[in-house]
Design a protein that fits this description.
about 60% helix; two-stranded antiparallel ribbon; 18 helices; mainly alpha
């Protein structure tokens, strides 16, 4: 890790590096949210707005070299749980994102966010993070038609000789190799490579129905560019989402961004040494407020929750130490509001490469779980597997809290259960019951 004194050239190059590492979200987020019935072009615009303005606020207000953008995992929850599983309209789901941002903002203002985080066992937080990784990895394999339904075994791998499968695997392995070689923008390169490789599929061989070049929501556009689509701006059903049945959705949005952001800040601070004199991450309170504002803003403009991106480590590694890095990356996002038709050409198998590999990155916290301690390992394992197996973040997280508390009580360690954790456990039990 470089420790040189920051200078403008270094900060600008660090911002470019961070942008290239995080840019895949402009491709992947619309691909996921469009499955919820949202217009692809409008989600591209919303994604860019959240990433652009969130990063600018992080750089100018919190003065940290950290990019903010719609978070991976939580966008999958938005589409596949909130909308498809629970039956919310995407307008109502956007409303729940807005309210989670409001709660998040209040918790940050009153400095209670840190207390809540401290009450949640660190091991359980690691298990949730990894469980989300498995969830989005599973979605990636499904979207690439690598994993298909099976009447005998529920799921199975498709015919390996299928051109779609071979193209996806080729893109996955190439991208993995680029990441291993620490190539800047490896995921973006892999997505583009897979897109080019997929072009003959369905034209020269294979099943054309499995390859969708061009979003059906963009059929009125011609060429590679278009004016930004602001049709999702203000579409959030803010009052309509305040329903009793939607409380679990708001809970998951709030909980996930609650510890995801702070975990990112702590991890980046440890890696870079960007800490205040008391040892906490640099400008922590302002960074948390930025995270909260990004989520609230996301609901209003038409995206899933915004959060600090761990990919900011790439820019920090390149020497980024000030807010100039985040500002540079944020500004680089804005031109892509005009590229919706071009981005829509990327087929699901290409964006799925990013889902699978990002899922693998989220396995890293598992090494910090003490697997030989049964009272820690069992709840963490149940959390880890139930998130993808039930296809529901809310179910996996809720069962994680319940199992952690009950296993501790039954093993005679009830004193380790803090009051806030007991309240969260009771809420989790209630959410599962309803």
């Amino acid at each position: 890790m470089t420790t040189d004194t920051p200078n403008l050239r270094t900060e600008l190059l660090a911002g470019l590096s961070t942008f290239l590492a995080a840019f895949y979200i402009v491709i992947v987020n619309p691909a996921i949210l469009s499955d919820a019935g949202m217009p692809f072009g409008a989600v591209v615009t919303a994604t860019v707005l959240v990433a652009g303005f969130g990063s600018l606020m992080m750089g100018l207000y919190a003065k940290n070299p950290i990019v903010v953008a719609p978070g991976m995992g939580i966008n999958a929850f938005f589409t596949y749980s909130a909308v498809i599983q629970y039956g919310l309209t995407y307008e109502e789901a956007l409303g729940t994102v807005f309210w989670s941002g409001v709660i998040f903002l209040l918790l940050s203002f009153f400095k209670t966010r840190e207390k809540i985080i401290q009450s949640i066992p660190e091991a359980l937080r690691h298990a949730v993070s990894a469980g989300i990784g498995l969830f989005i990895c599973f979605i990636g394999f499904q979207n690439a038609h690598f994993i298909v339904s099976s009447p005998a075994t529920l799921v199975a791998m498709t015919d390996f000789r299928d051109p779609v499968t071979l193209t996806f695997v080729a893109g996955l392995l190439l991208t993995g190799g680029l990441i291993a070689r620490k190539v800047t923008g490896a995921i973006v390169i892999g997505i583009l490579f897979t897109t080019v490789l997929a072009w003959p599929v369905g034209r020269w061989w294979g099943d054309a129905s499995l390859i969708n070049f061009g979003s059906p929501t963009l059929v009125n556009y011609t060429g590679l560019f278009s004016m930004p689509d602001f049709s999702l701006l203000g579409e959030a059903a803010i009052l309509g989402s305040l329903q009793y049945a939607y409380i679990p959705v708001i809970f998951v949005f709030t909980f996930t961004i609650l510890f995801d952001g702070i975990s990112t800040f702590v991890g980046l601070a440890e890696a870079s040494g960007l800490k205040d004199p008391d040892g906490t991450p640099q400008n922590m309170r302002k960074s948390l407020l930025t995270d909260a504002c990004a989520t609230l803003f996301a609901g209003l403009v038409g995206s899933s929750s915004g959060t600090a991106f761990i990919e900011s480590a790439v820019g920090i590694e390149a020497g980024g130490r000030t807010g100039i890095t985040a500002v540079t990356a944020g500004l680089l996002f804005f031109p892509f509001m005009f590229f919706s038709p071009l981005l829509s050409v990327i087929p699901p198998m290409a964006s799925s490469v990013a889902l699978v590999l990002v899922g693998s990155f989220m396995m890293i916290p598992l090494v910090q779980i003490r697997w030989r301690k049964a009272d820690e390992a069992i709840p963490c394992f149940l959390t880890l597997v139930l998130i993808p197996f039930t296809y529901s973040l809310s179910t996996g997280i809720s069962f994680g809290f319940i199992s952690w508390t009950l296993v501790k009580v039954l093993s005679g360690k009830q004193r380790e259960i803090r009051p806030i954790l007991a309240i969260i456990t009771a809420c989790s039990l209630f959410f599962l019951w309803i």
